[in-house]
Each structure stands twice: as structure tokens, then as C-alpha cells.
Request: fold
Amino acid sequence: MSAIQYDLGSDQILTLTIDMPGQSANTMNGEFRTALTDTVNKVKGDLDKIKGIIIASAKKTFFAGGDLNELHKVTREQAKDFEAMINSLKADMRALETCGKPVVAAINGTALGGGLELALACHYRVAIDDDRTQLGLPEVTLGLLPGGGGTQRLPRMIGLEAAFPFLMEGKKVNPKAALKAGIVNELASSPEDMIAKARAFIEANPKCQQPWDQKGFKFPGGAPHHPAMAQKLAIAPAMLRQKTKGCYPAPERILAAAVEGAQVDFDNGSLIETRYFAELATGQVAKNMTGTFWFQLNAIKAGGSRPDGVEKETFKKVGVLGAGMMGAGIAYSTASRGIEVVLKDVSVENAEKGKSYSENLLAKKVSRGRMTEAQKDEVLARIKATASADDLEGCDLIIEAVFEDSDLKAKVTQESEPKLVANSIFASNTSTIPITQLAQASAKPDNFIGLHFFSPVDKMQLVEIIVGEKTSDDTLARAFDYVQQIGKIPIVVNDSRGFFTSRVFGTFVNEGISMLAEGIHPSSIENAGLLAGMPVGPLAISDEVSMTLMQHIRAQSRKDTEAAGGTWQPHPAEAVIDAMVDTHNRKGKAAGSGFYEYPEKGKKHLWPELENLFVDQAKARSVQLQDLKDRILFIQAIETIRCLEEGVLRTVEDANIGSIFGIGYAPWTGGAIQFVNQYGVRAFAERAQQLADQYGERFAPPALLMGKAENNETFS
Reply:
């Protein structure tokens, strides 16, 4: 059975229905390419009998885009063959586009990447008006560019400037917004209406040619040489570099392909695009990002870490203890997904304050037209703010999000646990204290688990699920279900102090502060963080977290370590933190001053006094930027390997996804473990040893890493 059904009606309108066998969505794989070539040859033979062509889909969606399984495997050695294959596919699309007959895309559902590019190669696009449908070119988010003509057709259709957010940011829109942007031509109310409108266009336009194939075509908004456009394009590479920090080649190649292609005819522009596409597809950054953001993320979402044999649970009533920033965020994320929430604090006033957090977020949505006032009221009605534990009666899950203190957590656990319905789950949102330790306060430690959310909860997608020594598989499976029910990404880790994300995050922050202790200029430290690909510098994030909290966590960790008979190992960063808080009264952003100044008007900036207090001018001048970048990325990757070695991390997928979505580890790397793999395990171990010799034992390669290096194995 062909992937494209060929149906030439008695009215001489040809319907090409794409229906990839054995797949839930249509993709541009080898089977599709063969079917397209056969179809185009048949069209050429039947051209005299054809009045127009409708390209439709038999699937729920229109077309999902390129086959990432294929793309991920392409090597640099295969680049020439890959280019030839892409050009052949594009030649077939081009043959339909230039056949002289009207070609209409009947977009019944989501059209992303190559799917939208196929639609752009048509003369007219009719989409069913459904807000769930997405149209866009998201290739850049995987380190790629739209290689099926997207960088050439879209700018010619809507103008370079209007096309850039779709091309370089991967912006996705619903059909209404696509119509407004000029990406689709007409909306339909139903599949029947869509086909009727497609036929009407064919009847009204017996001959069709794309605007860019017509003599005298002018670029909407001006071609690159147009004075106004030339002015904008002159600064575009610098602005882009400021965003990408040189870590992401895809946006830079997209800009190049679009601008260079706009200065030649369409067919030559298409060849330029293919060359850039092949460069990216065979490059390491795309391999890193595709591997993690597509294959590994989908494996997690499919329940790869969820124990088998446990029936899926749907939660109806969730208690949240503590209405501070975290608790308020958890309440909002839960209520937004249709679940009843009891938000408890020591006073009704505190609880109401926590509820107002949701009210503010929802009000913003209303003001932006993303929700109605009635929908806002509906969500708020699900959150009950209270000071009474009795209101927790009937909860099938309680999450404690109180202050990071073992005794306080034990107290609220014992007070609220009896209110749960039989065999329900009690979870702690602790970021550092071991779950096994906290579960000692529970009457049912097998039903006790860690659910570590990240701040701000409404924006951060990750939840780290921590399994204590006595946590049952049944509890883990149901906790996994809750995380997915509220639309978050779950990773599963075993118990330890700081678990995985807090441990690794701590190394990033501490390394930055250690550099300051060594005399390195704070600007160099912050720049090194950004140039390595971290979202913010280590000093800025220290201010966000607050140095008083760091002191508190350290004190709690030290107390617990020594109580267990261990010896506390001081870190070089501790003296700087203590000096900042205890001597200079600079506690962080919330207190109004930390490593940075926070003027009421104007942008934050580094505290000038840091230079006098800490900087060694000779050291600051001689330090190598690459050393600083390596220290920031290596220290986090080494700690991640230790977490694998100790069995805290269960899978490489959880390590990569958790490091990016939980800590902000440089996304271009594909995650902390993929960074090691792509660096080369042996080369990584050697560089880690160099850093250990220079900066201390914390960089020493763990035994697991050395074993992999000796056997020339990657982490998988």
C-alpha cells in the first residue's frame, strides 16, 4: 500500500491523501519520499486530465515533519548523499508547485516542520479552525533548520522580519494566528467545509503560480538590499550572537540561509538551505539536542521510569502544606489541571496570601486573552485556603512544602497524614533532606515519597520524584501519574542528601563562588557561565536562591552528616558566603542586595565592592576563559556521574533531562551525561584529572568514569 493515495475524481480534481502505513502520524521518511516521487511522476503523466490538486491527510494530524530516527543517524561522511536525498525530495515538492495547476493543502490538524513546509509548497492553504492544532517550524529547538524549503518560502510569503520568530525561535501558532500571520489563507469549520473551500479555490484559479515564480516579485517588507531591511540585518548577527552565546549554530545558519537565499532566485536559495541543513544535521549539537529533547524526553513521557503492573491513578483532591512560594505554585499547577486543592498554612491569612498567587497568575492570563473570567473563577474555586488540618480530610495526596527543617516537616506529617483516604500518598517537597529520614515521622513509610518541584512552579516543567528506602513501587507509580496529570515531566531518583538536582546545582553555584574566592573577577565568572550555555551566571543564581538559605541548608546537612557519624568536608565557597552574609549583610535578591545591586530603577549590576574584597588583579588577568567554562560544565557532569555511580540516578535519560529542565544545564550539550559522551569519555576523564590537579579533588574522575574510559564505553 502506497503512503500517498491517488484519487482523480470525475471533476478532474486530484486528491492526494497521505497515509503512512503503520504510523500514527505522517513523517518524511524513505517510504514517503518513494511514494512522493511515484506520485509526482504519475501527476506529470495525468497533467492534461487534472484541473487542480488537493493534498490531504488520513491521520488525525496533517503531517508531523521529518523522520528524526533517520536524521539522528546521518554522519558527516554521509553528508553529500544526505544533501542529494534532500534535494531530490525538494525537487518533487517543487514539481508539484510549478506544475501550473492549483495545489491546495487541506490542513486537518497539526502541521509542524516538514509538514508545514509541504503546505507552504502549495498555492493555497485551508486549515480547520481548531485551537488544538499547531502550525510551525520547530526544527531550531532540536538544533536543526527547516530543510524542506521553509527558510525560503516563508520569508517570500510573509517577509524576512515576520518569518524570523517562526524560523529562529520555533514559534508555533494555532490556525487563527496562522491566518493573521499570512501562513494559511482560509479557515474551515469542518473537514467537509475544508475540502469544499479547497475545491472552490481550484475552480476559481485554473492556473496557479507562486508569487516568487512570477516576474517582478518583490519581497514583502523588503529584500535584504532594501535600505530599511539592510539596516536591520546589519545588526542581526550581533544580536543573535548575544542570545546564543555562540553555543547554538542553528539560529545562525537559519539567518544565513534566509538572507543569502533571499538574494538569489528560489531554486538557488533552496540549494543554499540544503547545504546549511546538512551541516547542522551531521553536527554534534543537533545530535545532542535531538537525542535528549526528542528520544529521551519521549521515553520518559511514555512512562519509562514508571513501575509496571500498577493501575493508572487519577487524583481528585490534593492537600498542600505551606502556602509560601513553592506551596502556592504547587496549588496553582494542581488546580489548573482540574484537581481540588486544600492549601493549608499556620493562619488563614497566610493561606489566602498563597491563594492570591494563583489569582495573580490567572488574572494575567485573562488580560492576555488566554482565558475567560469564568474560567479563572473556576480554577480559583478549586483552591481552599485554610489553617485547619480537618479540611485535609479525603485527600488522596498530600504534599508538604514547609520550611527546610526536619523537625517541622515531621510535625506537619504527623498532623496531616491521618486525614488521607486509605492507601494514599504523602509527599515531601524537600530539596535536600533525605526522604528515608523524613519518612521516619510517617505511620506508612511505604506510602511516603519525595516530589521535588522547582521554582517558579508554574514555569518549571520538571518534578524530581525521590524514592525512599521503604517507598513502594505502587506509591512511585501513582506519584508518577500525579506529575503527569499536572502536565509536568517526571524523573525518578533514589534517595540521598540533595538527591540529584540539588546536589548538582550546588556544585554549579559553589564553583562560581570558589572562583571569586580565588580572586577571579566576578564579571569573568558570570560571562563564563553564560558562554558555557547556562541560563544565568552562578553569582546571579546564588542571589536568587539567597545566601541565607545556602547557609541554612549547609547547617542542616552538616548536623545530619555528623549525627550519622560522618565528617563534614568544608567547601572553598563557604567562607565567601559567610563573609557576604555575616560581615557585609548581603543576603541575596529577596533581601535587596547580594553579589548584585538591585536598584529600584534600572538594571541589576554586580556590587562594585566585590572587586576590592575578593579580586586578585594578576589572577583575574591571567585566567583562561576556557578553564572557567570547563570548570562550570565539568563539575556538574562529574557530580552527575557520582549520582549514577551511587545509584541515586537510575537512568541516563533521567540524568540528561533532569540536568537541563531542573538545573538549566547548558541545553546545547543534550544534558550532563551527553556532554561527557560527546566530549569523548576518555578525553573527559583526562581533562577532569587536569582540573583536579589544578583546582582540587572535587574534580577527580569517579571510578565509574574511569572504568568507562578504560573500556572505551559511552554512558547509555
Q: What stands out?
A: The chain has a mean pLDDT of 95. The longest helix spans residues 625-645. DSSP finds 30 helices and 21 strands in the chain.
